[in-house]
């Protein structure tokens, strides 16, 4: 196992782990957004609460939550290690090299963007995931079955201006993070080709904008247009 440890603790190895976990987290974003779009149903939150109950009780989903958590932890840890290594190998820094001419802003600020996303994630999990998994939500009956009313918790949260602001800013940061990370992941994994790379770049850009816009629209809708 010595070769395995050396390989995946090297800079290249950590970049590979970053790429794989990043693409895995992208798939989670798609699934999570599809589930959240059920908030737009005009059924008083029944569909969303049934969906949330399924996600919280299905053993396969609960197992995948552990995999997802590990994916986040590996992604964050490797990002920290790689950032420190890059700084150590570049003592002079970008200032004297005109970075704006050599790399996009998102590429040079992945650490900052990642930090904003991490802070939001902690707040978001505390506000929704913890009550949903460990109690504290009001019950609601749907088709003679009692569910936790996560829907009303979401609606009430999206009526708080500072939470909506944090949410939207985090989605902007996530969009920039994904725009660079999506393309970079394919490049790191060696999946580049002069014929397909331009498509991957365009798809990554569109994916980043549409996914983050989809998430951002939800709190904005409830804050400006929805009445409790």
Automatic annotation (TrEMBL):
Tagged with keyword Transmembrane helix: yes
Signal peptide bounds: none
Regions crossing the membrane: 16-40, 60-80, 110-129, 160-182, 203-226
Coiled coil segments of this chain: none
InterPro entries: Cytochrome_b-558, SQR/QFR_C/D
UniProt superkingdom: Bacteria
UniProt-listed CDD domains: SQR_TypeB_2_TM
CC per GO annotation: membrane
Key words of the record: Membrane, Transmembrane, Transmembrane helix
Name under which the protein is recorded: Succinate dehydrogenase cytochrome b subunit
């Amino acid at each position: 196992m010595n070769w395995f440890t050396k390989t995946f603790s090297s800079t290249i190895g950590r970049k590979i782990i970053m790429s794989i976990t990043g693409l895995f987290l992208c798939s989670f974003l798609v699934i999570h957004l599809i589930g959240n779009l059920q908030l737009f149903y005009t059924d008083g939150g029944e569909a969303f609460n049934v969906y949330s109950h399924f996600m919280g009780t299905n053993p396969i989903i609960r197992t995948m939550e552990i995999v997802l958590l590990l994916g986040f932890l590996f992604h964050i840890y490797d990002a920290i290690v790689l950032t420190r290594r890059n700084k150590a190998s570049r003592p002079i820094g970008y200032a004297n090299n005109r970075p704006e001419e050599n790399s996009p802003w998102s590429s040079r600020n992945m650490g900052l963007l990642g930090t904003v996303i991490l802070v939001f994630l902690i707040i978001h999990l505390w506000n929704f995931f913890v009550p949903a998994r460990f109690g504290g939500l009001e019950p609601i009956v749907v088709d003679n079955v009692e569910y936790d009313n996560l829907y009303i918790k979401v609606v009430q949260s999206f009526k708080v201006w500072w939470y909506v602001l944090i949410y939207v800013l985090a989605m902007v940061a996530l969009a920039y993070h994904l725009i660079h990370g999506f393309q970079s992941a394919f490049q790191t994994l060696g999946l580049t080709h002069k014929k397909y790379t331009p498509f991957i770049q365009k798809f990554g850009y569109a994916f980043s904008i549409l996914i983050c816009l989809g998430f951002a629209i939800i709190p904005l809708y409830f804050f400006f247009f929805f009445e409790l």
